[in-house]
Amino acid sequence: MSRTLVSLFALVAVLYLGLCAALFVFQRALIYHPQPRAIGAPATLLKLSVADADVLVSVRPHDGPNALIYFGGNAEDVSLSLPTFSQAFPDHAIYLLHYRGYGGSSGSPSEDSIQRDALALFDQVYAAHPRIAVVGRSLGSGVAVRLASQRPASRLILITPYNSLQELAANQFPYFPVKWLLQDKFESWKYASRIAVPTLLIAAEHDEVIPRSSTQKLYTHFANGVASLRVIPGTGHNSISESPQYLKVLGAAL
C-alpha cells in the first residue's frame, strides 16, 4: 500500500474518531433543548425539594385524591399545558415538571437527574393524592414509564413513546457506535414489563420523529392486558396535541 493511501486512511480514521468524540461530548446538547417558562405566576409554581438543584414544577392545586404528573418533550415548555390540562381535568391536581435547565430550573438535564427529580415529585404528590396518573410525552414517555415501574401510579399514559432513545439515535447516526457513546439511553422497554397498572400508548398517525415501529415495539413489552395503543389520525409528532381527539383520549384514559 502506498504512503498516500496510508496517509489517507489515517486522515479518515482521525476525522472519524474526532466525530465520535464530538458526539460523545455534545450528545446532551442534541437530546435536550431547554425552553423558558411562559407561565410563571407564583401561585402556579412549586419548588421541588432536591439536594443539588432548584427544580420547578408548574402546578394547579386541587383538593382530593386525584393528581396528574406530566413529563414533556425535549423542547417543550410544559407550563403552556397548564391552562388546557386544568380545564380538561378539573378533578385532578396538575403537576408539570420543568427538567433541569428548563423553565427556570437550575442544573443540567440528564437521564439520571431527571429520574431522581421524577421520583421526588411523585413522593411529594403522593403524600396528598393517593391516585396519581403519570403522563409522559415524547422524551418524557421514557421518564414516565420508568417512574411507573418504581412507584404506585394509578395509571400510565405515554404520548408518542419510543422503545428506547438508543435505538432512535442508532438509526439517526448509523455509522457511529452509538451503543458505546450514548450516556442517556432511555430504554423504556426495560421497564414496560414491570408495569401492572392500566396503560395507554398514544401514537401520531404521521409521526415524523418517532417511527411507529418503535412505539409498537414498546407496546409488545407490556404484559398481556395491561396496555392499549391508540393512533390519532391526521397528526404528526408535534401537532398531535392540536387534534380535538387528543384531550378526549386523555380524558377517557383518566
TrEMBL record:
Ranges where the Serine aminopeptidase S33 domain occurs: 91-185, 189-243
InterPro entries the UniProt entry points to: AB_hydrolase_fold (IPR029058), Hydrolase_4 (IPR022742)
SUPFAM superfamilies with a match to the protein in the record: alpha/beta-Hydrolases
Protein name from the UniProt record: Serine aminopeptidase S33 domain-containing protein
The organism of origin for this protein: Pseudomonas cavernae
